[in-house]
Amino acid sequence: MEDRIKEFDRIPCLEAIGPWPFTTRRVYSWANGPRIVWHSRYHRKGLLRYYDEETTRRRPNLLSCLWMPRELNWWIGVIFALGASLFALASVLTLSPALAHWWLLNSTAISAIYFAGSIPFTTAAYLQLYQAANAGDFPRADSAVSRRAYFGWKPHEIGWLSAALQFAGTILFNINTFDAMSPSPNWLGQDLAIWAPNLIGSILFLASGYLAFIETCHAYWAWNPGNISWDVVFANLFGCAGFMASAWFAVVSPQQSSIEAITLSVIFTLLGAIGFFVGALLMLPEAVLPPKL
User: How much is the pLDDT for 142?
Assistant: First the structure.
């Protein structure tokens, strides 16, 4: 395989596709040899840098995905799932005051659960950004990263751009959930300290989720359930849409916000958390299942 890698610079690319202006899939082939398919998501996540037809003959062990502490992708999935579960828990407690009272939790304590959930989101998002920043340039054989980048700067790469926007969005979620533990007494202060970071963070999340989605689809839209990677990014995009809708209903007006708007905001937060939780769990089998390229 090493000899083949060294030949990549001399191998013509037979196919290069992706949503403009990005390229997310390339196909290479040797004369009288197997084809090599490069996939942006698999490359940046280190799931499958070099693909040949022998790979599809491997039998995946799905149970192995439950415990892979040496794999960065495993940690990303588990930590995202932790953050999403805390967001879901806080949402359920908000929607069920009786349950919150039974647990002796007031609104400040529930806000603290939201803030606690934002920390794993930021941690996992940073790990994903770090991973994308240190993915070597394909297909050059000498593209191994000699010096690690903590953030990198690859705005021309769709995977890095998606990860960077998501990480920035999580920072804003840290801010708005922290400020929500001690809300301003007036509507303007709440909008500036809580709603504005929530709205901007949700916009960044939605942009990030869509970029990850089209990276996997190789087009602006595709319907491909059953492809584990598509399932991951679709669940995440669903979660991003939920958070965006939640932020839309969370704005505080000079008049008292309606109970209906507040309830809808929390419901959409819960749906967003469920979407991210499902997507995070699906990242675990994605690491061991053969790809559909």
Answer: 43
Across the range 120-140, mean pLDDT stands at: 89
Share of residues in the chain with pLDDT > 90 (%): 70
Tens digit of each residue's pLDDT (9 = 90 or more) over 149-199: 999 999 999 999 999 999 999 999 999 999 999 988 888 899 999 999 999
Transcribe the chain into DSSP letters.
-HHHHHTGGGSPEEEEE-STT---EEEEE-TTS-EEEEEHHHHHTTS-SS--TTGGGS---GGGGG--TT-HHHHHHHHHHHHHHHHHHHHHHHH-HHHHHHTT--HHHHHHHHHHHHHHHHHHHHHHHHHHHTPPPSS-TT---SS--SS---TTSHHHHHHHHHHHHHHHHHHHHHHTTS--SSHHHHIIIIIHHHHHHHHHHHHHHHHHHHHHHTSS----TT-HHHHHHHHHHHHHHHHHHHHHHT---SSPPPHHHHHHHHHHHHHHHHHHHHHHHHHHHHTTSPP--
